[in-house]
Amino acid sequence: xxxxxxxxxxxxxxxxxxxxxxxxxxxxxxxxxxxxxxxxxxxxxxxxxxxxxxxxxxxxxxxxxxxxxxxxxxxxxxxxxxxxxxxxxxxxxxxxxxxxxxxxxxxxxxxxxxxxxxxxxxxxxxxxxxxxxxxxxxxxxxxxxxxxxxxxxxxxxxxxxxxxxxxxxxxxxxxxxxxxxxxxxxxxxxxxxxxxxxxxxxxxxxxxxxxxxxxxxxxxxxxxxxxxxxxxxxxxxxxxxxxxxxxxxxxxxxxxxxxxxxxxxxxxxxxxxxxxxxxxxxxxxxxxxxxxxxxxxxxxxxxxxxxxxxxxxxxxxxxxxxxxxxxxxxxxxxxxxxxxxxx
Amino acid sequence: xxxxxxxxxxxxxxxxxxxxxxxxxxxxxxxxxxxxxxxxxxxxxxxxxxxxxxxxxxxxxxxxxxxxxxxxxxxxxxxxxxxxxxxxxxxxxxxxxxxxxxxxxxxxxxxxxxxxxxxxxxxxxxxxxxxxxxxxxxxxxxxxxxxxxxxxxxxxxxxxxxxxxxxxxxxxxxxxxxxxxxxxxxxxxxxxxxxxxxxxxxxxxxxxxxxxxxxxxxxxxxxxxxxxxxxxxxxxxxxxxxxxxxxxxxxxxxxxxxxxxxxxxxxxxxxxxxxxxxxx
Lengths: 343, 280
What we know:
The complex is a heterodimer of chains A (343) and B (280). Chain A is of the alpha/beta class. In chain A, 36% of the residues lie in helices and 21% in strands. The longest helix of chain A has 20 residues, at 323-342. By secondary structure, chain B is of the alpha/beta class. Chain B has a single domain, classed as Thiamin diphosphate (ThDP)-binding fold, Pyr/PP domains (Rossmann fold, 3-Layer(aba) Sandwich). Chains A and B meet through helix 3 and helix 4 of A and helix 5 and helix 6 of B.
């Protein structure tokens, strides 16, 4: 059942959820930050409206900088602001930033430890009809390998707002990952958010009445895939497979403690992300478990292939990054675990 | 503005020569690093830290200090030696260049060395960072000036031109770029590897005020920096014509000395030459 202390939208699994682009949460957050903190500045590489920086640019024109289509300048200028007491948010699409300007981020932001917040928008396949050129599926991997870098991947617009505000309070480089298309709103203003702590959103064991289970899986998800993990958990419950859903909104530093605690009471672990299965959330979880608690794993994500044009649902179905794929992976895993035990 | 007397000019020249000698000693000790650029920029660094900059070696993070951003980080031996003479670190520390556990990294790192404003090495990113720093000064109503020292070779980088375009757009008058126009880069002469001329026309087309100076003439260096601060409607670039390897005959104007250090024997000859160069 849904973990009541997560204070999710109560009807998240019973009704068609409210749909909002995750990036909208970023937009409202930077406007709030602009009002509260005069050191917050925003830089945009000619994508002000679509990265939701427009409201900030109108309310605080003296603190808004349009750098043109120049992502290397975007990030290196932000680095200059970041070493001068400012809290710069550098806005572009994830394929361009942190894509095109990777080395500038490495040298002038990460190694230089400048207080820069990189807002990477249009990440993942749910960028939709723009196609593979605009669907970043490698950004978590490339940022994760960089010392000093934190990575936040909010699960919905509400969490995006909270994480953006949280990012401004932490000194140091942070990569914030947002997606373009409308995705379900699952959290509420009351949902707790601590960037250092993963949240349990669903836990079958909370429902004491059901005791006979075929097995149990831990579903670790980030971004809009958290909703798919919840849908999968509900379906698995009906199939007599228990599950725990962990919202891993912070990929780095990874909350290994919560991960291990949850993994310990499950037969296997499934990760779900709108990102390549190499080097992203799945990689981070696998690295942590391999060290401390080796577990049977399945990784849901794009399978080392580029995406293509299409609508959200079509793409998620075709590339098998939806609740159906999670359920299939869980069933396979439980079947194999059973077989192994029998042998 | 500080008074500039003949005695002060002679004093700065002397510092520049001290810096050159230290650069040779550091590089020979390190066994790797770049020779030509640091020797060619010694006069400008001495003029910066001993006359032009408002700074306090006892308080490297003083918030009103002028900022010197070194974009072409590979010439850092000249920065380290000048910082040492200015009092940011003991002179004997210069011998630790490029060694394990040293504060003097092969390319400058902000967190390691007092007085170093940005981490650099990969080319083309310094001017953008200087712009971010200069815009912060404007937002905070601070009067400090940001100086970006760049190489000619890094004008091959797209990032450099993105920054030039942006500063022109903003009419950013509190940033001064100084280009070490020594005509060499690792693979050869700049005009053979990737021509950047006409450099003055290019900057003017991007709405910059352009000054050209002899980068070894202390008076011209200081006069140009003073004029740059007085230009209110545009950013200013000082194209400083320098001789790479300045003061050591076998290194001067020879691109083969761009990216290598002298051997112990070559260093001895170089130090002898620099001693004579002092009295020229």
